[in-house]
Amino acid sequence: DPPAVPVISLSTSNPKSGHYTQNSVEDDFELSTVCYRPEGLDKLLEQTKFTKKELQILYRGFKNECPSGIVNEEAFKLIYSQFFPQGDSSTYAHFLFEAFDTNKNGSVSFEDFVMGLSIILRGSINDRLNWAFNLYDLNKDGCITKEEMLDIMKSIYDMMGKWTYPCMQDNAPKEHVENFFQKMDRNNDGVVTIDEFIESCQKDENIMQSMQLFDNVI
Amino acid sequence: MAAGVAAWLPFARAAAIGWMPVANLPMPMAPAEKSKRQDELIILNVSGRRFQTWKNTLDRYPDTLLGSSEKEFFYDEETKEYFFDRDPDVFRCVLNFYRTGKLHYPRYECISSYDEELAFFGIIPEIIGDCCYEEYKDRKRENAERLMDDQEDNKDSKQPNVTFRETMWRAFENPHTSTMALVFYYVTGFFIAVSVITNVVETVPCGATPNQKDMPCGERYTVAFFCIDTACVMIFTVEYLMRLFAAPSRYRFMRSVMSIIDVVAILPYYIGLVMTNNEDVSGAFVTLRVFRVFRIFKFSRHSQGLRILGYTLKSCASELGFLLFSLTMAIIIFATVMFYAEKGSTSSKFTSIPASFWYTIVTMTTLGYGDMVPKTIAGKIFGSICSLSGVLVIALPVPVIVSNFSRIYHQNQRADKRRAQKVQKARLARIRISKTGTSRPFLHSKRNGLPNEALDLTGSIEEGNHQGAAISLLESQHHHLLRCLEKTTNHKFVDEHLYEQNCLEGALQSYPSHSPSLSSSGSLTGTCCSRRARKSSHLPNASAPPGPLCGLQELSAVHIQHSDRPPLSTSRSSLNLMPKEVLCKTNCKSSQITAAIISIPTPPGTTPDGDGHTPSSPSSQTTVSSNIVKVSAL
């Protein structure tokens, strides 16, 4: 399960505590002047598996793009879309955002960001598979239904855009989902639970191999 | 790739974890870093001022001097820094561009020195942020105009091979170009004045001789006036002919207002020459002499102010017309009222309504000649109302003309802005092109047959890095990410042209969905040629094909989908159900896969090519008798 995010100390106002009663204009203004500072480097070192240098590099990149210290969904989508110029990555970015935003407060702070990255890049294979399952499980109820998987699949195919070879069929995602469920759904009950998922992945050579790609991303 | 997000590449690569479990194909190897480089500080010594920044910051823009290996030329081994003998103030802006991703233009900086620095560091000025771009463009335009003015002055004196005709025209248009032109300008001006004064003096009664009554000077000194008139007309004629000769476009010149004025000014004289002896038309001839006064308009060539006034009036024509109309209405109303009011009084001057017009006009314009005055009380009351309303009406034209004048003035300014906007659009287009250039390098690298195989097989990126254009590590990582996506979805990225080519030739129709009816390619949303629609569309009268055939189709479709052969290319079978003969608008033809398990007699299919290039076998169409199914093969 996602690691608990510790309380963050803030310099000005706390977006978590109830300033939401004010009207929206002031809210925006407040949020834009909020400066969100993460905890000390040491605490993060304890909680994640990154080295100090790596955390520094990550934070510099993060802060450069988001001077206010937090990413909201729009900025998140914008950043992610820069990497996929040909397609539409907003849906997948939305799912990612949901997965990173562990405390469901509508914004991703540096801690959330770095925790997620720590699991993906420095975690064990099981951790990674867990994280992926969490990404797929849109309503976080512990199992992946066909509809959820279809949404995810469509979002992935959306990133390819229009200009692909071979031409993108309309039912390509759906067929892919069928294939996925054939592989993963052991007891054929129409949903994939976490155990089925991990078990099936561990049996698949390709997936195991691709999981190791993340070892030296940073 | 944009600047700051280069730092987010690790995140993007990590996010690819969502694709791994759903991918059916193995992922390509990742580009490995040659060495676990720590991020290092770089010292940039610009004319003695030291700037320091992270190496990664400079690497964000690999197509500039600082971001590429070009800076190695400036590396100083002893001091371990990069030395640039350039302006440190402008360098500050350049370096900030790397840091923030936005290029600013400082107002105090000279435009040409700024341009030079940008050119030196390999940065295109179009990237200047919106905050500073207007200023930059304005300065640049001023500079260019100044240069052009200088060039023109030089050009006039330097170019010997301009034709005589062109020199003449330029002399006419701009009297300051040469002394001859100036002389010509003053001579014509003098003669215009002489001519106008002559016309005026002609009618003044000269000193009377004792035995004759006063007669106008024109009749007394007929010969003298005639000589002066002839001389002036000759000058004007010569001038007109010379202008006509020198004009670049004679037809346009003859239609222009000034030339019409010229013609009208000299025509009466010639007509008079022709018709001197005819008594009947002498009256008309006298009238023609009135047109001689138009010579005064020739002065507008000499006066800029006259020209502007004329132009303003011309552009105010519609407003003035409306004003005239409303004035006419008021005149008619008041004239009628006055007429009926004064009808009763005796010896009234208001004999008819048109006769009252004169009174109304004189009163409304507050002239008040007094030749017609109302005598009855009602008449006086209405007369005063008339004069009061007249004051209001007179106040109307002035703001109209003024507002028109200011409108014309602003229009001129807006024309400049519109020119700037066109430039803005061009600029945005250029930025967009350079941004979409992010997808280009990826496709280029694929087309060059780059790292794909090399990476997969050898796992080293040494070769990859040294092939073709130097791909930075960042780019190779980005490309690897895109390749993973391709593997996940089992589709490849192509660029637009290739896509359209494939669509035209490879023509993959949309597969039958799970519903029994086949969706034909009749509607645009169903084909591959159009955007992948969320729902496949069905032709309204797509009749359901026979069941077993449909099942076979599905089988073949499934079979193809999961085949591991990478370029299924043009050799997919697609069975078009064509209730009508309508295909997609590009008239896609489809080809057939040899692996299709279809029990329809088919023409010999072409063997699938390895890399999806268009096979050039002739297309043939076979119709199956029982079903309205056409199978065509490329």
TrEMBL record, chain A:
<dbReference type="GO" id="GO:0005509">
    <property type="term" value="F:calcium ion binding"/>
</dbReference>
<dbReference type="GO" id="GO:1901379">
    <property type="term" value="P:regulation of potassium ion transmembrane transport"/>
</dbReference>
<dbReference type="InterPro" id="IPR011992">
    <property type="entry name" value="EF-hand-dom_pair"/>
</dbReference>
<keyword id="KW-0406">Ion transport</keyword>
<keyword id="KW-0630">Potassium</keyword>
<keyword id="KW-1003">Cell membrane</keyword>
<dbReference type="InterPro" id="IPR028846">
    <property type="entry name" value="Recoverin"/>
</dbReference>
<dbReference type="InterPro" id="IPR002048">
    <property type="entry name" value="EF_hand_dom"/>
</dbReference>
<comment type="similarity">
    <text>Belongs to the recoverin family.</text>
</comment>
<keyword id="KW-0633">Potassium transport</keyword>
<dbReference type="InterPro" id="IPR018247">
    <property type="entry name" value="EF_Hand_1_Ca_BS"/>
</dbReference>
<keyword id="KW-0407">Ion channel</keyword>
<keyword id="KW-0677">Repeat</keyword>
<keyword id="KW-0479">Metal-binding</keyword>
<keyword id="KW-0106">Calcium</keyword>
<keyword id="KW-0472">Membrane</keyword>
<dbReference type="GO" id="GO:0008076">
    <property type="term" value="C:voltage-gated potassium channel complex"/>
</dbReference>
<feature type="domain" description="EF-hand">
    <location>
        <begin position="124"/>
        <end position="159"/>
    </location>
</feature>
<dbReference type="GO" id="GO:0015459">
    <property type="term" value="F:potassium channel regulator activity"/>
</dbReference>
<keyword id="KW-0813">Transport</keyword>
<dbReference type="GO" id="GO:0005267">
    <property type="term" value="F:potassium channel activity"/>
</dbReference>
<keyword id="KW-0851">Voltage-gated channel</keyword>
From TrEMBL, chain B:
<feature type="transmembrane region" description="Helical">
    <location>
        <begin position="221"/>
        <end position="241"/>
    </location>
</feature>
<dbReference type="Pfam" id="PF11879">
    <property type="entry name" value="DUF3399"/>
</dbReference>
<dbReference type="InterPro" id="IPR027359">
    <property type="entry name" value="Volt_channel_dom_sf"/>
</dbReference>
<feature type="transmembrane region" description="Helical">
    <location>
        <begin position="381"/>
        <end position="402"/>
    </location>
</feature>
<dbReference type="InterPro" id="IPR003975">
    <property type="entry name" value="K_chnl_volt-dep_Kv4"/>
</dbReference>
<keyword id="KW-0812">Transmembrane</keyword>
<keyword id="KW-1133">Transmembrane helix</keyword>
<dbReference type="InterPro" id="IPR021645">
    <property type="entry name" value="Shal-type_N"/>
</dbReference>
<dbReference type="GO" id="GO:0043025">
    <property type="term" value="C:neuronal cell body"/>
</dbReference>
<dbReference type="InterPro" id="IPR003968">
    <property type="entry name" value="K_chnl_volt-dep_Kv"/>
</dbReference>
<dbReference type="InterPro" id="IPR011333">
    <property type="entry name" value="SKP1/BTB/POZ_sf"/>
</dbReference>
<keyword id="KW-0406">Ion transport</keyword>
<feature type="domain" description="BTB">
    <location>
        <begin position="40"/>
        <end position="139"/>
    </location>
</feature>
<dbReference type="GO" id="GO:0005250">
    <property type="term" value="F:A-type (transient outward) potassium channel activity"/>
</dbReference>
<dbReference type="InterPro" id="IPR028325">
    <property type="entry name" value="VG_K_chnl"/>
</dbReference>
<keyword id="KW-0407">Ion channel</keyword>
<dbReference type="GO" id="GO:0001508">
    <property type="term" value="P:action potential"/>
</dbReference>
<keyword id="KW-0630">Potassium</keyword>
<dbReference type="InterPro" id="IPR004056">
    <property type="entry name" value="K_chnl_volt-dep_Kv4.3"/>
</dbReference>
<feature type="transmembrane region" description="Helical">
    <location>
        <begin position="353"/>
        <end position="369"/>
    </location>
</feature>
<feature type="transmembrane region" description="Helical">
    <location>
        <begin position="320"/>
        <end position="341"/>
    </location>
</feature>
<keyword id="KW-0732">Signal</keyword>
